[in-house]
Design a protein that fits this description.
single chain, 27 helices
Length: 681
Amino acid sequence: MSLWKRLLWFAVAALGTWAVAMLALSRGEHISALWIVTAGFCALSISYRFYSKWLATKVLMLNEQRATPALLQDDNKDYVPTNGWMVFGHHFAAIAGPGPLVGPVLAAQFGFLPGTLWILIGATLGGGVHDMIVLFASIRRGGKTLGQMVREEIGRGVGLLALVSVLAIMIILLAVLALVVVQALAESPWGVFTIATTIPIALVMGIGLRTGKVSVMAVTIFGLLGLAFGVWGGQFLAHFPAIESWFRHDQKWLAWAIMIYGLAASILPVWMLLTPRDYLSTFLKLGTVALLAAAVLLINPTLQMPAITKFIDGSGLVFAGPVFPFVCITIACGAVSGFHSLIASGTTPKMITRESRIRSIGYGAMVTEMMVALMAMIAACVLQPGEYFAINTKGAPTEVVAKVSTAGFPVTEAQMQKLATNLGESTMFNRAGGAPTFAVGMANMFAQVSTKPTALALWYHFAIMFEALFILTTIDAGTRVGRFLLQDFLGNLWRPLGNTRSWTANFFSSVLLVAAWGWFLYEGVIDPLGGINSLWPLFGLANQLLSVVALCLGTTLLIKMRKSKYLFVTLVPLCFMCAVTFSAGYLKVFSPDPRLGFLSGAQSLLSQAAAVTDPVKAANLARQATIWRFDAFVAVSFLVLVLLIVVGSARQWLQLLRGTKRVVLHESEFVQMTPTQLAQF
């Protein structure tokens, strides 16, 4: 490296350090949101340039000459050699679900500093490593899933536990994601119109590329024009009531529509719908995030939220729980996400044509998602803290205003009503969940660059639609990956069901999987007190437990590859995530605080039910208590399963390191790429 390049990278490192110092040392005074953007950009640049390159060349030793599963097993359905940019688009769209948008917004109740630090550290040293190693492992093993690889590399017993736990967690995650989309799109013609237009556009793109007569550039331009029409044209539906009625639907209708879409995305060839639609969605995702970053640069907004709030002790208004471990659990996909391991061992490894792209897709997509999470943190923290907490605190308006103001964040009912009116909403109370808050923060920044009085409402509804599209791309890829996992499991019962080349087996497994998460989704739609809403508190915990399983696999592979001197790469994030998930799980189940612990919360609800005279209210309280006890059972089950996987993995590591067990690495046989393949891909 030349002297000038060294000086440049030293300057980037110094700037990033200064930005983090400005964020960390601020106490009481308001500081610019630009410092968060600067810290994120510097962390992304340095970690990708140096750490990911070191992982690729020294630890994993990627081989540019090695043929990938997409080339060796091309079946025109699941294994399809795909353009590198389209694979990146698919992978990023699939992994960037609600976590990087909703998680940082909820974690902002601790202040902007804890969440920002975890996003920066977790994504670069944990999430990027996690995603890159799992993607590498799957490509070296013919595109096998996480459960299959754990079974082969760690042991059949541990592998079976991993397969069962991963499949169960996957069903819950997909149902929760689908419910978020349904709630965002209900009675929203603009959002439904935009998402509906992306489906035929994606089909045309996929067919056009498959013919080989249309270039990627031409298809991309066509797709972008169609996407622009869908985003821009949706706002005018109100002028055409008859057409608008085609796209205005309730939650039940949307639930069935999403189930049908998930089934189609799982069964149809990956090149026909899934890849082009995810590629198309990535332009909207990254484009919107880039515009948000540009708005921050142009407006230079001030962070209104303190660096650290009083709620780090666990007494939060948005959710209960101390800053550790719940800042990590809440942010989820923005830093480390187990769901990424399912995509990295599901659809993506079956499309990559060169091992060198593992770095840009595995690590690059993760640190790109890190920037999305930082933008979400900014969107939440530029709001007035009183408004932020009033939006996310449950209760009657008078009670919420009193509670938030007493906590030290003044807000009035008139202030909240004015905000709702400007946004085109009837009220902004009881809008918990993170998504509305992100939309308000995003709309506030975008509206400042426009003089139109309706700009705030326009951008708010655009942001809601954007979030729904953001999450929907995770559902389609997740359903296809879930089908792979289910076929792994069913193949143990009857071998033909595990054949991914069989249309009959694919259809049967897809229907079974969609029926599983669709049942939970529909239950949540028709019964807000039960169904999937009861499992929402488990979303972050289940997601992070998956990362523990994936990092156990990564550690095992490094030992078998005789890379023991690099074990810290996976062991450090593994130990940290174990501390996070098991401590969070213990608190969620056994905490004596009824706002936090499932069991104490259930007991508190039963006591309230016994004290009320209204039989309907008493029945609802008793039912909610039953749901929380079920949550406790599910949480304990997940924790026990993952603990057994960790113990089984540790036992394997000791045997391998001591030499008492023979090292068997289950990589596919090396096949060199042909000159034609090297020239083409």
